[in-house]
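stage 2 :: seqdesign
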């Protein structure tokens, strides 16, 4: 596969504070790569730098071989807060059409918007306003707007963090389906370890601020994934445990991820149960 995004020695500073430090990685065309890292490590700064919204202090970013200087014409971003990314005075159809106003004719705008809304299961909602929709449906509109633009690269900044768990699962599966059917290249930032493993072809694990890449984990899961069976698989649980260990300062990747998945899974789940039991005990003590 050809390289869609190439990041070389990328760094950014705010005054004396270094937010990200000499990051280098690539994203192949058609790939879905997830980025996870501790809170405040610079994930959002990284996305703003990759999108050209913020100029890097060091290094460079190239999109399909062209250096990024300013926001590229063929890049789209889906943000976490859907309530702020949609225009409440425009209908759903016109929200999706909006970025296309200076790009294509009116007829093509309407056709693309209708097609994108159908992709995300909202073909009957074009005449409604965002405030008439649920949170999950509003985020579907934001995704449809990005897809209608037909970007070479789709950046997503914790896009499902503001919805409930069931809606999150539905949106994750929607993203996998759209990516599979339309060969979309996606770079997704999330704080959710399970989500990164479930969605990604690879997971980039970042360190505490200033962000550096701790590990580049390949996700050896089938392309067709299921919220129940995939999350129950030994491979998923092992990768989830390894990612958690790396996020909590466990150092470099250990070969036991593949060599002993059952052992990793058992230790991780045991630690989770112990933490839950401790929290329950504290709540019980507080009530008494």
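stage 2 :: out
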């Amino acid at each position: 596969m050809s390289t869609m995004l190439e990041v070389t020695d990328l760094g950014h500073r705010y005054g004396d504070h270094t937010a990200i430090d000499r990051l280098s990685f690539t994203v192949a065309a058609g790939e879905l790569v997830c980025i996870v890292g501790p809170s405040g490590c610079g994930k959002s700064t990284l996305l703003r730098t990759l999108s050209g919204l913020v100029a890097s202090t060091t290094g460079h970013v190239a999109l399909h071989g062209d250096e990024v200087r300013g926001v590229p014409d063929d890049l789209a971003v889906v943000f976490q807060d859907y309530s702020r990314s949609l225009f409440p005075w425009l209908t759903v159809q016109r929200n999706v059409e909006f970025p296309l106003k200076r790009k294509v004719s009116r007829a093509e705008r309407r056709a693309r918007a209708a097609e994108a809304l159908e992709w995300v299961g909202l073909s009957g909602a074009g005449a409604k306003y965002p405030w008439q929709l649920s949170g999950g449906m509003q985020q579907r509109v934001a995704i449809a707007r990005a897809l209608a633009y037909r970007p070479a690269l789709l950046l997503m900044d914790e896009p499902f963090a503001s919805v409930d768990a069931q809606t999150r699962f539905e949106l994750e599966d929607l993203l996998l389906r759209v990516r599979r059917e339309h060969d979309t290249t996606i770079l997704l930032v999330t704080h959710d370890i399970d989500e990164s493993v479930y969605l990604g072809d690879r997971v980039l694990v970042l360190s505490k601020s200033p962000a550096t890449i701790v590990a580049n984990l390949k996700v050896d899961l089938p392309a067709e994934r299921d919220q129940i069976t995939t999350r129950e698989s030994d491979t998923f649980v092992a990768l989830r445990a390894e990612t958690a260990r790396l996020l909590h300062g466990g150092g470099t990747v250990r070969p036991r991820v593949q060599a002993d998945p059952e052992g990793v899974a058992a230790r991780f789940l045991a630690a989770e149960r112990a933490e839950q039991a401790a929290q329950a005990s504290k709540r019980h003590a507080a009530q008494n």
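stage 3 :: structure notes
- The beta strands are 3-14, 17-28, 32-36, 58-63, 66-67, 75-78, 153-157, 186-189, 202-206, 213-218.
- The first strand starts at residue 3 and ends at 14.
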